[in-house]
Queue: 4 jobs
Job 1
Amino acid sequence: MNELTQVLIHIFLCFLWVAVGCPLIWRFSIRLGQLIGRRFF
């Protein structure tokens, strides 16, 4: 039971990381792309 709860917590943390991290990385990459685009073009 303890191992099962650890696995469930791990899956939940991974899901939370993806749900929170992906939009942040997406926004950051868009801003970085805009800055690079303004400098080089």
Job 2
Amino acid sequence: MVLRTLSFQGDAFGSETMKNLILKFLKQYYWIYDYGDRQGLLGAYHSEACFSLFIPFNPQDPASSLATYFRYSRNMKTCKGPNLRAHLLKHTKPDIVDFLSVLPRTQHDLNSFLVDVCVQTEKMLCFSVNGLFKEAPTRTPTHPGLNYIHICLPRDIPGDRTQATVIKVPDIFMK
């Protein structure tokens, strides 16, 4: 992961201040996610955060490198039964981080990220991130694409005093 000043093409941040805030968050989050102990991400999630993973690919495709993720996918087309769908929806920050910790090691290519600020108010920031990643330390090719949606709340929301309060829903790996 490159920790230099990132210059993304086609991004919609709204302002230079917002761009710097989001880029700082992305660098810190994905540094921990890719290279650190993912338990360090606990502070990034709100106590009532929700998370799900969606993989739009055919699990019978032996060539797909996303097969590892498919069993965790909450794809409504392939995930049969309400109990399984409920089980795959993570409801608290410890559950989310524990889940993230069992996923394969990755390397996100921050230079490939395209960021779009969808909503910005005094009480919420919602932005999407599109980009590339690959599993590490294997030499598998980079996956064709991913889309993360982050919903961020200010630190001073009552009831939660985390360092950076973030709800991240959902992570979508696109084929």
Job 3
Amino acid sequence: MGNPTAFSCCNSQVYSTNVSDIKINAVISLTSNTYTTTLTAGVSYPIRVVAAGLTSIVGLFSYKGPGMIFTSSNFGSLVSWYSDTGSCPKIQTTITGGVAGTKVWSGTKTSTSTSTILATGTDGHVTETDVYYVLTPTTVTLRSSVLTPWGGSQTSTYSTSFTTLTGADGIKTVETVYYVETPIVNVLSTTIQPWSGSETSTYSTSFTTFTGSDGKETVETVYYVETPIVNVVSTTVQPWSGSETSTYLTSLATSTGEDGKETVETVYYVETPIVNVVSTTVQPWSGSETSTYSTSSLLTTMARKRWKLYTTWRLRS
């Protein structure tokens, strides 16, 4: 079988009488032998039969082609008979390839699988077609292209867009753009310094943006506020035996009032002299001796926080 084992195509009259490469040998049909080979679609293969007492080639051979589940003795579409003087043309068969299907492939390497299909053309010849399935990795690139302020309290993806592009390696890449709304957390930081004015005013504001441990961007706003400080004088008076008034101690305290304003309270400790005054009251006394039978003292506060001591004398004469 085949050229030139059988004979050269269209040259069956030229052959060797010594046949050494016999593919199938059968004697009186007592044995059943098979021969398997690979044939190229669209090509004619010469078959040389050496037999004695052969009445019918059809009764001698059967054929099973690719994809066939049964053997056939009908060589009508497989074998053509040519005379020694006739031509032996090549059977022209056009095999049209195409893309069988496309699906998403999440792997990291290109994978190829092959399947074989058989089809009978309009010329009656069986054509074997190989279909190649190529799985190409799709590279997904995540990009965030638009950042806008978002006053909501939760993070949400409000839009997604897709773009397919071909890279330098010829592989198609699906680019996905996610538009994400991320809450901006405002942090209020207030710095207070002394202000002698009479009104509260914000004289400066600064902003700082930073990323916290949760990955969210935070806008920190610092307001510089001028707040009037109200001075309250509180005087504590205690006995003082000196002859002059003096302030011997001062203390400061800051407190926040009901209006939310901070107030600096100043306490002055003042020493004021105490003046002792003797007041004598005389009344008739019928006794025979002079005696002091009672004494009382009265402590009063005079102007300029001075203390006066009143003493009453009762005399007996």
Job 4
Amino acid sequence: MWEIRCFLKVATIKGVLRFEKKGKLSPRFVGPCKILKRIGSIAHRLILPPSLSVVHDMFHVSMLRKYVVDPSHVVDYESLEIDKNLSYEKELVEILAREVKMLRNKGIVLVKVLWRNHQVEEAT
């Protein structure tokens, strides 16, 4: 059986702060959620994640975004080693650049480092 999925816009739902983040860091969309039933031409009934269990399960189409099935959306969690405090230890792979910036009579060393589990574009 072919199932239709979509993302649900949660940024505009008042009183829903279930993601432990406020303001700009809060997620705009959650999902993908499975569409159970189309009601009329502008409403859909969804299967919601447990974090939205107190919200009604029927939404206007303006609150939904299309989900395109893509095998690259799968994340490999086994390669990440996460501590109990939900952080991971960064490990140096390579020093990409080194520069000495003069500030009055002091020299400040700036180093660009490539970390493990990061791409070259994300080097700091």
